[in-house]
Amino acid sequence: MLKISDILKKARRQEKSADKSVAGNAERVSPPAPAENPSIPDMPVVNAAPQQPSAPVAAAPGKTPWQVVPDRAIRDTYEQAIALARQVMDPAAESAVLLPAIKQNIDALIASLQRDEDQLMRLFFGDYFTEQGYLYQHSVNVAVLCASLGNALHYSQARIRQLTLAAFLHDIGLAYYMDIISQPRRLSTSEYNDIKKHPVTAKERLKCYGPDLDVGILEVVAQEHERVDGSGYPYNLPGPEINNHAKLVGLADVYEALLHQRPYREKMSCLETVKQLLAMKQVFEYSFIKTLLDVTGVFPVTTAVKLSTREIGVVIHQNSRMPLRPVVEITHNTQGQTLSERKYIDLGGNFSVYIQDCFEESALKR
Predict the structure, then answer these.
(1) Which pLDDT belongs to residue 178?
(2) Count of beta carbons in the 10 Å neighbourhood of residue 20
(3) Is 305 in contact with 355 (CB distance < 8 Å)?
């Protein structure tokens, strides 16, 4: 099995034997294949025998184990969460009145995730619906990802609920700094120092929610910008003193932000995001980074990929603990022609095929 850390190690090593079969061997990193589009980063690939077009499995009647069947109820729950986040962020909102609706929506998000994780994660990885999505939709996305991480870590339902609620509320303090965070440029040192006060502002704001809000959530919200090497804020806490839920929310917060546009920058590619995360392994709990990549994969759902067979497809499902080997829906054959019939290839069970390139799903002509 390829270790995620290997993505950054010796990616440009020369092949010693290009004809070695991978049958019975663990995955290894080989030199990236040259990208046809210079805007697409080089890809980590797996050594493989000379490729033939894959033999994807034709979709059986009805829903396959991987096929995402649109469920309007899931999208409605997600959109309702965004509307609630907008209300929560309003400094004039009656906080205690909103709490029952927030808890009900959190339960619905968790249920949606457990019913069809792939569909909810497609919404997570999609573009923001509005210009201020970096504040409202971001909070919902962080909550969705934390619920997924809680599932992967085998947390109890009560603990997942508390983690997800904390994630949903984690940026509530930013509502008081809208004039700063909406700037279409990088912040000055003075502005950044002001922003660093928002976890304390959030904690004070959440006290207004009263006894119905677990005090542990206040601690998570206050600490989610702390880092295990002591470089975080506002208290510069070392790793052992940071609430584990705060570590998870902080990690999900950064990962979601990297993948989405901000007023001062464009979003990053999935590979650049992974590289950024791994470069921050001293500031986040590395076991949590591993869990996150097990959940999201190196190539998240909605990522369009070019396979070693020259076929084109879209990632639709992740294989647990195999972040480089998702399930791909083949959309175009080796000649670039659109397929009329849905076909899938599970790279977790087909080690002779690997992902060679990736790009935005919107670039596909389907």
Answers:
(1) 82
(2) 13
(3) yes
Backbone phi, then psi, for 275, in 5-degree steps? Answer: -60, -40
For residue 96, is pLDDT > 70? yes
Backbone angles phi, psi at 165, to 5 degrees: -65, -45
Residues 6 or more apart whose CB falls under 8 angstroms from that of 344 comprise 56, 57, 59, 64, 66, 67, 316, 327, 328, 329, 330
pLDDT value at position 23? 29
Task: Tell me how far apart the alpha carbons of residues 364 and 40 are, in angstroms, rounded to a whole number.
Answer: 14
Q: What angle do CA 63, 66, 72 make, to 5 degrees?
A: 65
pLDDT tens by residue, 324-352? 999 999 999 999 899 998 899 999 999 99
Give me the mean pLDDT over the 242-252 stretch.
98
Side chain identity at residue 352, one-letter code? S
* Domain boundary assignment for the chain: 1-48+298-366, 72-296
Question: What's the maximum distance between 2 C-alpha atoms anywhere in the chain?
Answer: 66
SS3 8: helix
Chain position carrying tokens 């965070």: 181
pLDDT, tens digit, for every residue of 115-154?
999 999 999 999 999 877 788 999 999 999 999 999 999 9
Cα of 222 vs its chain's centroid, Å: 22
Average pLDDT over the chain, rounded to whole?
82
Architecture of domain 72-296 in this structure = Orthogonal Bundle (1.10)
Helices marked H in the chain: 72-89, 95-115, 117-125, 136-152, 157-169, 178-181, 189-195, 198-206, 215-223, 244-258, 270-279, 286-296
- pLDDT of 52 reads 56
Name the H helices within 6-94. 72-89
Q: What Cα–Cα distance (Å) separates residue 176 from each residue in 57, 88, 93, 99?
A: 52, 12, 13, 20
Question: What pLDDT band is residue 66 in, cutting at 50, 70 and 90?
Answer: low
What is the Cα–Cα distance from 351 to 48, expressed in whole angstroms?
Answer: 7
* Residue whose C-alpha is closest to residue 87's, from 78, 97, 77: 97
265 DSSP assignment: B
